[in-house]
Amino acid sequence: MINKIFFFNVIWSMGSHILSRGMLLLSGMLLARNLPVDDFATYNFFIMTATIISNYSSMGLGVSSSRFFAEKKENQNTLILGNLYSISLILAIISSTLTFLFIDKVWSIETYYKWLISATVFFLILNIVPTGGVMGVEKYKDLFFLSIFNTFIMLIGVFITIKTNNISIQIYAYILSIVFLISAQSYILKEETELFRKVENFIIRKNAIKEIISFGGVMSLVSILAATAPWLLGKIILDKYSSLYFSVYSIGLQWFSLAMFIPGIVSRLILPRLVKQYKVDNQSKKEVRLTLLVTLSVSLLFLIIGTILSPHIMNWYGKEYTDFHEVIILFFIISVIYTPINVLGNIIIIKVNTRSWLFITSIWFVFILSSVYPLMSYFGFLGALYAQGIAAILLNIISYHFCRKKELI
């Protein structure tokens, strides 16, 4: 697994992730400093809500695409690949329509924003298969250059938004960036597979659907649980406290995502390679432990740097946020705790089965929801972060002991 190709994939994927996350952080800082707190909170909750709806609707298509494009690249079984695209289109139409009809049940917004969030959901779901597919065929160098263009689109949107003081401009820029990724990544897959050479590849086939659902159906539930937890915590904070506290929570999540970039890269890279090597030989325990050690070391380094810079980080967002630097530290600590889970989870999924990982994830999810209110009643706003941290410790313990029991590490 750890060879020259894998090493360069890590480098290119790292660059792509840094550009993507760095763009989100920079745009967040600029928007927070130049827009009212309520507008910044509205934008963050808009993106968070659209993302969770797309995760609800994805049916595990992301991890399924990564697996099947990696697995089927050699034998060109394009029926499954085409059916992935067809399913995503159907789900995008259904989900965007339901979003428009029912979004006001959980969030009171104007009709204009209902159209925008519905369009965002539509394109987010359409982008799931191309993104997973490009990772499956391991075209990480191409992803890096796409991230550069995508960064320019988002930053142009930020500057126009600030100039016009209209947050909807940034939402348009976000939608445009997704459309660009759908087009560019689909072109890459066209060059790498036989997928787009026959229209028949996109006709729904019973056997192909059965194979996709057998793997992705369970993983869709995992994705739903993983996406729902932070959204629910954000909604609780927004309802119980104020837009300012929710904005602080959103900022913390962005830095958490940046701190998780090495574990996230390993997670995205390790799945296609595990799939390809599964029929040849078992994953080396030594390499797994080395991967865990490297990712954990990087996360600890981020924690040290983040702790030192935390007062300055919040200053970058504006005077309203300067008193919340401990939130950044807590999110960096949480990222360290979550780091091993990326590797352990992928190994459980591939080497055992997806149902085992769903069960473990369900325990994590139930613990967060059952502990957040008691912790918030005692610690206030920070109780939501403590709930995430303690749940991550529990998830680590269970995952580690499961892997040890199955002799996977």
UniProtKB/TrEMBL annotation:
<dbReference type="Pfam" id="PF01943">
    <property type="entry name" value="Polysacc_synt"/>
</dbReference>
<feature type="transmembrane region" description="Helical">
    <location>
        <begin position="212"/>
        <end position="233"/>
    </location>
</feature>
<feature type="transmembrane region" description="Helical">
    <location>
        <begin position="292"/>
        <end position="315"/>
    </location>
</feature>
<feature type="transmembrane region" description="Helical">
    <location>
        <begin position="143"/>
        <end position="163"/>
    </location>
</feature>
<keyword id="KW-1133">Transmembrane helix</keyword>
<feature type="transmembrane region" description="Helical">
    <location>
        <begin position="327"/>
        <end position="350"/>
    </location>
</feature>
<keyword id="KW-0472">Membrane</keyword>
<feature type="transmembrane region" description="Helical">
    <location>
        <begin position="357"/>
        <end position="379"/>
    </location>
</feature>
<feature type="transmembrane region" description="Helical">
    <location>
        <begin position="7"/>
        <end position="31"/>
    </location>
</feature>
<feature type="transmembrane region" description="Helical">
    <location>
        <begin position="253"/>
        <end position="271"/>
    </location>
</feature>
<feature type="transmembrane region" description="Helical">
    <location>
        <begin position="43"/>
        <end position="63"/>
    </location>
</feature>
<feature type="transmembrane region" description="Helical">
    <location>
        <begin position="169"/>
        <end position="189"/>
    </location>
</feature>
<protein>
    <submittedName>
        <fullName>Oligosaccharide flippase family protein</fullName>
    </submittedName>
</protein>
<keyword id="KW-0812">Transmembrane</keyword>
<keyword id="KW-1003">Cell membrane</keyword>
<dbReference type="InterPro" id="IPR002797">
    <property type="entry name" value="Polysacc_synth"/>
</dbReference>
<dbReference type="InterPro" id="IPR050833">
    <property type="entry name" value="Poly_Biosynth_Transport"/>
</dbReference>
<feature type="transmembrane region" description="Helical">
    <location>
        <begin position="84"/>
        <end position="103"/>
    </location>
</feature>
<feature type="transmembrane region" description="Helical">
    <location>
        <begin position="385"/>
        <end position="403"/>
    </location>
</feature>
<feature type="transmembrane region" description="Helical">
    <location>
        <begin position="115"/>
        <end position="136"/>
    </location>
</feature>
